[in-house]
Design a protein that fits this description.
Blueprint lengths: L2 H16 L13 E6 L6 H4 L7 E6 L4 H13 L5 E7 L9 H12 L14 H14 L8 E7 L6 E4 L1
Parallel strand pairs: 1-2, 1-3, 3-4
Antiparallel strand pairs: 4-5
Length: 164
């Protein structure tokens, strides 16, 4: 059985255990969008005590705002969020490579050319959070009255530290 088959089976168990319940409303009840990394060690619902329907959680490699802007605009303009929480984390893989490393790996593994793609690595964790905060605050696509705050999540201690 494949890992995807296992996950589908787990979903069947999850859904049947819930029975007939009312689904949460479409707009997030806490009106917040959380942008974070796709790292499997970060489980936003657990680390932030979120319940189903509380928030939009947008994830990508590094939790980078430039890549998430499309989703953030939809979250704000169509679904009413008015706060953005940016969370990067310690021991992030984005700190460990340069674009050229990934370009070469793709070429070696797949024979494909990814040289036009920016994989957006960064060398300064808190600096990357600050860059995202500045990008979002300066974007004409994000409402001026949006609360935007940034954090680093420590994967060892499981604590958030605000970046100012």
């Amino acid at each position: 059985m494949s890992v995807i088959d296992d996950l589908v089976k787990a979903n069947e168990h999850f859904a049947s255990a819930l029975g007939e319940i009312e689904s949460p409303p479409l707009p997030p009840t806490r009106r917040v969008a959380i942008l974070t990394c796709m790292d499997a060690r970060i489980v936003p619902a657990r680390i932030l005590n979120l319940q189903e329907g509380d928030a939009h959680v947008i994830r990508n490699a590094g939790g980078l705002a430039r890549e998430a802007l499309r989703s953030l605009v939809i979250s704000q303009r169509l679904l009413g969020t008015n706060a953005i929480m940016v969370i990067h984390h310690t021991d992030c893989g984005m700190l460990t490579f340069q674009n050229e490393d990934v370009h070469q790996k793709v070429r070696e593994d797949l024979g494909a050319d990814a040289s036009e793609m920016d994989f957006m690595p960064f060398g300064d964790l808190e600096g990357s959070v600050r860059n995202d905060l500045e990008f979002l605050s300066g974007s004409p696509l994000v409402a001026d009255d949006t609360e935007i705050r940034g954090f680093v999540y420590d994967v060892s201690t499981r604590r958030l530290s605000e970046v100012t």
